[in-house]
Amino acid sequence: MTIAQALLSFSVVAALLTVIPGLDTALVLRAAVSRGRGHAIAAALGIGAGCLAWGVAAAVGASALLVASETAYRVLTLAGAAYLVALGAQLLWTSFRRQGDDDRLPAVDSPDRGSLWVSWLTGLGTNILNPKIGVFYVATIPQFIPDGMSPLLMGILLAVVHNVIGMLWFAFVIAGAGFMVRTLGRSRFARVADRVTGIVLVGFGLRLALQHR
């Protein structure tokens, strides 16, 4: 397998994983609708940073601990589950509390730098605390390393490819959200997005906590 063949094959797998509706898409969509394009981009960049961190960890073998140690995997799983449930519950609470008080919705692309950092950290935390991302990289990266190629270098390259595909998908999601906001109105769509995202986060967190490895 050549480097070009490895990158192309991995791109197909990564693209399929990216476009399947999940936490990352829900978070970016919610940020785009409720907070504006700037916050959606910040969340997407945080998600990308988390994926890149897992990719590098898998390339150097650090995240192999998740495969070898049941305790380490369980601890990270419970931490991630608690984070997701708390985040989802907060979104649900905010959406119902905000109903009928639409004037408090933040302006689109509000230049609140602190909030942008929060959006970035939310995306980062969602990926860092999801052990399935690490397991995905551990399971797939070794299959796409050509003979004679540095595992670290190839792992980083594959993670970057995954990030590029993810950013392209998120750009499509953000553009679509902008269209829906202009069509349906941002206040109503924002509440719906918050509730859907909250339910997805709580459900995924509970499933993560209750599942067996």
TrEMBL record:
One GO CC annotation:
plasma membrane
Q: Where are the transmembrane segments?
A: 40-68, 75-96, 152-180
Task: Alphabetically list the UniProt keywords.
Answer: Cell membrane, Membrane, Transmembrane, Transmembrane helix
Main location (coarse class): membrane
> Keyword Lipoprotein, does the record have it?
no
Q: Which Pfam families match?
A: LysE
Compartments reported by the entry: Cell membrane
Q: Provide any one GO MF term from the record.
A: amino acid transmembrane transporter activity
Q: Which InterPro entries match?
A: LeuE-type (IPR001123)
Topology relative to the membrane? Multi-pass membrane protein
Q: Which PANTHER family match?
A: ARGININE EXPORTER PROTEIN ARGO, ARGININE EXPORTER PROTEIN ARGO-RELATED
Q: What is this protein called?
A: LysE family translocator
**What is the native source organism of this protein?**
Jiangella aurantiaca
